[in-house]
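Example 9 (inverse folding). The structure is encoded as follows.
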């Protein structure tokens, strides 16, 4: 199993580290445009191998895509992150050009690959990859919902004063400060609806804290987060590589599912060796449907800014 991660910055390196530590891939290629940067990160990470007990070979490359040839999975993290006070959507001007060039280079060297898009604004960048490559829709996956759901569970556990392992929940919709749809109605503590334990008011607070999860960290760090994003990507990569058939909310091209068309947005999917093996259609209530439709409107508005 060969995995390429483009962008050896904060998220790319974290992602490579988690993939290596989980020890399911034979090779991870880290590629960056900055001279020597990916080679340096790869060497530093390889020097953790004997300490952390993994056999994955991590290779660095300065923009040489021949090293990525034959990758089963390619992750795109290249591009700029936001600064405090910015939205993810403001990154489109610079990141669209980067994602377009990078995805084209990746597909040239690995025509059968599965691409996981991380660069922001992620739903729109995922749509861009659809529009500009020939890959089938099952092989283009945007990562956002897995991270947002992990943040939702963190906030739920905090509100419930419960261990995170006791809590389950999912966030669908767009990966933006206003577009996320945390499914509070379906969240559980060890199979019991969380509404049995906390008030609707507290749950509404959990929902709001979840939606601004990325912005909260960006304010604290001065740039956006990387540990949980890297871990979330590694979860998707592992589900595909190990054919786990796990359900994750991912940004995928919708063609009528959820009553939506011609956009990529977060919905639950089953991930296996073929990428997206099934889109799971949940029976949303009216409020959730309305929230999802508003979210889709926001994503489509950003998509309209793409020069296709
Ligand atoms: N979808 C999600 O849930 C998340 C998305 N992100 C996004 O991921 C992206 C990366 O964030 P960070 O790693 O924090 O940024 P960073 O600045 O630490 O790293 C980005 C790297 O991309 C490289 N790069 C730029 N243009 C390139 C090109 N054409 N080819 C190859 N490499 C290139 C840069 O040299 C840099 O090393 C941002 O757009 C950020 O908003 C971040 C966290 C979560
Ligand atoms: O907040 C950001 O800009 C980065 C990101 O997508 C996240 O951490 O959720």
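The amino acid assigned to each position is listed next.
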């Amino acid at each position: 199993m060969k995995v390429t991660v483009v962008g050896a910055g904060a998220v790319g390196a974290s992602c490579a580290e988690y993939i290596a530590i989980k020890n399911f891939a034979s090779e991870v290629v880290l590629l960056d445009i900055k001279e020597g940067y990916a080679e340096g990160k790869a060497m530093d990470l390889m020097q953790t191998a004997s300490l952390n007990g993994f056999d994955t070979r991590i290779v660095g490359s300065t923009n040489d895509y021949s090293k990525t040839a034959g990758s089963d999975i390619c992750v795109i993290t290249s591009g700029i992150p936001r600064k405090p006070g910015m939205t993810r959507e403001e990154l489109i001007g610079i990141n669209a050009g980067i994602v377009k060039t990078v995805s084209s280079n990746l597909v040239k060297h690995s025509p059968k690959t599965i691409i996981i898009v991380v660069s922001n604004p992620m739903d729109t960048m995922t749509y861009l990859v659809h529009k500009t490559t020939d890959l089938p829709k099952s092989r283009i996956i945007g990562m956002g919902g897995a991270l947002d759901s992990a943040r939702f569970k963190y906030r739920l556990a905090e509100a419930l004063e419960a261990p995170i392992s006791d809590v389950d929940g999912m966030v669908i919709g767009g990966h933006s400060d206003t577009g996320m749809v945390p499914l509070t109605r379906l969240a559980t503590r060890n199979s019991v609806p969380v509404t049995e334990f906390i008030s609707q008011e507290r749950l509404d607070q959990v929902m709001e804290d979840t939606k601004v999860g990325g912005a909260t960290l960006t304010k604290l760090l001065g740039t956006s987060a990387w540990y949980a994003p890297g871990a979330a990507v590694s979860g998707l990569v592992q589900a595909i590589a190990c054919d786990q058939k796990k359900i994750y909310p991912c940004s995928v091209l919708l063609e009528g599912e959820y009553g939506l068309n011609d956009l990529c947005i977060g919905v639950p999917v089953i991930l296996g060796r073929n990428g997206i093996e099934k889109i799971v259609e949940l029976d949303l209530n009216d409020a959730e449907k309305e929230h999802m439709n508003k979210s889709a409107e926001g994503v489509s508005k950003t998509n309209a800014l793409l020069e296709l």
